[in-house]
Amino acid sequence: MARLRRPWFLLVFLALGVASAQTRLQVTVIDRRTGQPLTDLKAGDFRVVDDREARPVQAAEYAAATLDLMLLLDTSLVGESVFPLGEAFISGLREKEQMAVVSYASSADLIQDFTASKELLHRSIHNVRFGNAPRVVDALYAAADGGFQNAVGRKVIVLLSAGVEGYSKTNEREVLSLARRNQISIFPVYVRGVERSLFEHLARDSGGAFFSARDLKLPPPKLAAQVYKVLRGRYLLTLGDNRALGDNVRVEITAARPGMRVWASGMPVE
């Protein structure tokens, strides 16, 4: 498997998970036409299906989240088109939030570990070199495999991609299994639509969402601000029983939304 290359002097810490007595689901809901989050839904507006079995939703709370965000920057031969988005996401980071930056082409490299310093983050992406094929899935696996040991906020990967996959050795199932185990949600933001189905799959099965720069037609600062709205808030659903959720969980929105194309995805909370 691909592994993230980290500077030798970084300390590694073990994050311990805490089990919950209730079965809860972290859910992202957006209007796909606009990329805007839906924030006013009630428990009755959700339907959770776990391996074809409907699970009762007892409560739904929309809550703000502080972020631990890992920015994956496409530095392949086709990746220069996403560089302005990288700058915009760094500029949009808030106080008390942290970001790490990983550049990826044929390999994934940590170029800046988690920090709140925008100066360090901007400096890190201005030193990258572009080249080779973008192995998107390998980069995601490397980032999720030990990249968030010290995280305390909502763990998210924002994948900035030109939209091309360069034949990764790792498969999507392995990435999603690791992301669910480590409670990491994936949010692809891409320029082209070549790998749209890949991005949709990664987002849906990790409790994330995907954003097409071409469809939304927003300049980088506004697109980054739109994505941040989604990242900084999510629903916490409490289910009516405490049975563990399986891998094939689907979240559906039952409320009528004229003119909307609603997207919903869930991640079990451990």
How does the helix and strand content classify structurally? alpha/beta
Q: How many DSSP H or I helices?
A: 7
In terms of DSSP E residues, the strand content is 25-35%
Helix percentage: 10-25%
Please supply descriptive tags for the structure shown above.
single chain; 270 residues; alpha/beta; 6-stranded mixed β-sheet; 5-stranded antiparallel β-sheet
Your description of this structure?
- The protein is α/β, with parallel strands linked by helices and 270 residues long.
- The protein has seven helices and 14 strands.
- It has a six-stranded mixed β-sheet with strand order 8-7-6-9-10-11, sandwiched between helices. Strands 1, 2, 5, 12 and 14 form a five-stranded antiparallel β-sheet that branches.
- Helix 1 runs antiparallel to helix 2, helix 1 crosses helix 7 and helix 3 runs parallel beside helix 4.
- The longest helix is centred in the last third of the chain and has 12 residues.
Give the SSE map:
Layout: E1 24-31, E2 36-37, E3 46-50, E4 53-55, E5 57-64, E6 67-74, H1 83-91, E7 98-104, E8 108-115, H2 118-126, H3 136-144, E9 154-161, H4 172-181, E10 185-190, H5 196-204, E11 211-212, H6 213-216, H7 220-231, E12 233-239, E13 249-253, E14 262-269
Parallel strand pairs: 6-7, 6-9, 9-10, 10-11
Antiparallel strand pairs: 1-2, 1-12, 1-14, 3-4, 3-13, 5-12, 7-8
Helix pairs in contact: 1-2, 1-7, 3-4
Task: Briefly summarize what is shown.
With 270 residues, the chain is an alpha/beta fold. The protein has seven helices and 14 strands.
